[in-house]
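So, who can interpret the following?
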Amino acid sequence: MSEPIRIGALGLHHDHIWDNLKELAPLTNGRLVAAADPNEALREQAKQEYGCEVGDDYKSVIENDEIDAVFVYASNREGADLAVAAANHGKHVMVEKPMAADLAGAQAMLAAAETNKVRLMINWPFAWWSQMQHAIRLAQAGEIGRLWQVKYRAAHQGPVEMGCTKYFSDWLFDDHLNGGGALMDYCCYGSVLSRVLLGRPNSVFGMEANLCKKDLPVEDNAMLVLRYPDAMATSEASWTQIGKLGSYMTTIYGDQGTLLVEPREGAKLFKATNEQEAGVEVDVPEAAPELKSASAHFLWAIETGGELNPLCDPNHCRDAQEILEVGRVAAKDKREVNLT
């Protein structure tokens, strides 16, 4: 049996890190050996829960030849720099969505991974819903005909109200570190899903506003509308929605049917056609082991060189970052902006 892949964590102040470390722990082909973060309380948490070495110096992890790969869980802006540095030291890299704070950061990551021949994977929590995976397979196989619209809404009451830690919220509310507010945090999901299903759009129209939280330094609501030659997509984001109705729902429209994807793992997938207008539940096959979590998929990709989940492919995610960047310009200028 080969030795497990040795993982280092670069940053612990993105709350999603704890879910991924929890998923990593029972896997036999990878283990956390070190973690670095400037916050002592987070370092102590990692040490107590996983028994790994901890420190406040990212370089000690990046330059450690005993470490094979890294999880990058810092702010969007700092995370891009850490990912580039790790790739330049021959480390495989998994970074949390949306890839970076801006397109320049995303492109630098992609270039570093290609130059150094390491795996680069972008984690999207909804990528591991088996019903989302199956819906994408059905749509790409032509089961609902030619696709003409993709719609996704990500919404909750707000990071603080949802229980995000201060370590996380502090940079989410920082335009420079996050790359925006709700638009960057949540319109990213619809952007990458649209890129996977419809390709790169011709143009983007954007809207952003502080509709409810007037004193927030970044926007609390946003929407992007993507224009294609013969299709469209919408991506909605809210940090002010009361309740869960309509949140995290995906709808994929084709000229022969419609797919509705309920949110969270274990939920349902529905398909409507001319013959079954009200829609019927679609049987969703159990996901393969390497498609059940980000940690499992990352380790599998390193070991096999296999094709990444399309939502996690860095080329798709680079294009999603471009959509977000153009969308921010469109929102601020109140106009439609063409992609170059």
